[in-house]
Amino acid sequence: MKKLLYGVAYYDEYMPYERLETDIQMMKEAGINVVRIAESTWSTHEPQNGIFDFRSVSRVLDAMYKADIQVIVGTPTYAVPTWMVKEHPEVLAITKNGPKEYGARQIMDITNPTYLFYAERIIRKLMDHVKDHPAIIGYQIDNETKHYDTSGPNVQQRFIKYLKEKFKTTDALNDEFGLAYWSNNVNAWEDMPSVIATINGSLGAEFSKFQRKLVDDFLAWQVEIVKEYRKEGQFITQNFDFEWRGYSYGIQPNVNHFSASKPFDITGVDIYHPSQEDLTGIEISFGGDVARSTKQQNYLVVETEAQAFSNWTPFPGQLRLQAFSHLASGANMVSYWHWHSIHNSFETYWKGLLSHDLQPNPVYHEAKTIGADFKRLSAKLINLKKKNKTAILVSNESLTGLSWFKFNHHSELNYNDIVRLIYDELYKINVEVDIIHSETDNLADYSLIIVPCLYVASDELLERLNQYVYNGGHAVFTFKSGFTNENLKVRTSSQPGIIEKACGVQYQMFVEPKNVKLTNHSYDIAEDNNEVHTWMELLTPTTAKVLATYDHPAWGEYAAITCNEYGKGFATYVGCIVSSETMSEILIDAVKRANIWRQEQQFRFPVIIKSGLNDAGHEMKYFFNYSFEEQSFAYPFHESVELLEDVTYQNEEMIKISPWSFKIFEVKERGRTNK
């Protein structure tokens, strides 16, 4: 990209009165240079079966082009019109809870031939209508696409075909999934029952994997259609989302971001996060790291919050802080959902940049400063490149596997809780990371790889991790890693199975800890933060050194945390769920041992530092203050220009960062930092 994009979703169809020209004037004043349209309004574009009306699309395209605002057009396939369901109720997804009912979005079966017929037709009609319009810079496929738990008879038949192709025979299926249990053996493919009610974790997890593949196929199918129409230089993207906990939290259970993003030119994501006193920047950073890592390139923030709910209305300065936080992780676009606050229906109080009176407000005025700085500094800030030496290996299969076999019967902790326990503590000590996955082949590019709860893994992946350590890499493995193969079959060896080579430790028993703390360790942790909870493995070292044991009258002889030299490398194994303070200490040790401790690590949250190289090859340093307290410290890098104020700072010169504010430094050429 040649410039930073600053945008909004714009739905002229939702406006309570005519104000397109007024909106465009206000957008121009705010520095908005791109809008998203069309993906939410199928019923407007096709009010009756085969009757098409793209006047609203043309009207917005023409007006935006006249104003020199670029447009991303979305395919309107994620919210079906009433006439389709009336004529073809079979398009509604059948789930484990029964058929969906009309009203909400994303209620369709993305494999249903009738739905796909109408979806292709509206895509082609829309694309044919807009394909020559000069305002368009790119296309968005669908919206936050998932499989919506579609599980009906047609999906079950496709799943049987999938299993046939994978296992060839029912005997192989029965053996690998252990279907003899409770007489679940399938002795003929035509006898295969629906898996909606299965009690077999292997079969259930395989179905979840298959459902994620349905998303891959559906998105790739749409991309191929749009490619027939798009012009040279126009991109195709998708706005992936994350596990939702009232905000974007972790790896999406229903989509494999790495495989689903393959057909797209650039990855797009929707990132929503806590604000006000709860703004930490962690969700912005996590979502950005996932998006950037899918293709190891810059990405688009297709949606993020402007005001949204009352608990998300930003403090003064926070909208700017959030926008530049996205850039610091590698985003080339920041776009709000959405421009105006809606006056009816489900998202009435998911407020936009403008409130319900559609007039300028403090958030809008702050947006104007962002737009001006994006324009002024675009050449310096666009296409930020990162070369991180730390990675976290994530696994959709392990996420699914651990949803079948939880840490214990009393806990709601899931896989993403452990991923975020690790990610958050790295973030707080200013260690930037890539997010990698089981098919990542460049493990040797990283000095340190953290492997949280790799419950489901092939022999090949575990051997590659062993080899990574043996060749000189540093790894941190947590509990529950190496436990089952790729089909959720528990390995018959002592745990942690194959990675015992690298970790030098084994165990046979695991328990739910009660009143257990760590002892015989050197971590600098307060007694109140020394607890072990939810899950603990009773470790016996083979070649490993013990870093901590359990303070417990029955389990005190067992190791809790170990480290092991293996070949030229080093592996740490954490056999229990520890506090965030303890995890921070474990990770600090690992970063130091991997020899990637840098100047940034002298700082701690709420001061967050993000780094990278800009298009000119100059080193960029973002300093953020996520707090109400002014932060003051000596500048730790070479002579640099602070871009917002155009002031030069020398090494060790004192700088101050106001509450909920930031500074951006371009390091001068005389030698890179962090060497």
Automatic annotation (TrEMBL):
Family, as annotated: Belongs to the glycosyl hydrolase 42 family.
Keyword Metal-binding attributed? yes
**Entries under Pfam families matching the protein:** Glyco_hydro_42, Glyco_hydro_42M
Q: EC number(s)?
A: 3.2.1.23
**Which reaction equation describes what this protein catalyses?**
Hydrolysis of terminal non-reducing beta-D-galactose residues in beta-D-galactosides
> Glycoside hydrolase family 42 N-terminal domain: from which residue to which, for each copy?
10-376
PANTHER family, A to Z: BETA-GALACTOSIDASE GANA (PTHR36447), BETA-GALACTOSIDASE YESZ (PTHR36447:SF2)
Say which enzyme class the record assigns. Answer: hydrolase
What residues does the Beta-galactosidase trimerisation domain cover?
389-596
InterPro entries listed in its UniProt record: Beta_galactosidase_Trimer, Class_I_gatase-like, GH, Glyco_hydro_42, Glyco_hydro_42_N
Protein's recorded name = Beta-galactosidase
This entry's Gene Ontology molecular function terms read: beta-galactosidase activity
Q: Which Gene3D superfamilies match?
A: 3.40.50.880, Glycosidases (3.20.20.80)
| Record keywords, A-Z | Glycosidase, Hydrolase, Metal-binding, Zinc
Signal sequence coordinates: none
Q: What SUPFAM superfamilies has UniProt attached to this entry?
A: (Trans)glycosidases, Class I glutamine amidotransferase-like
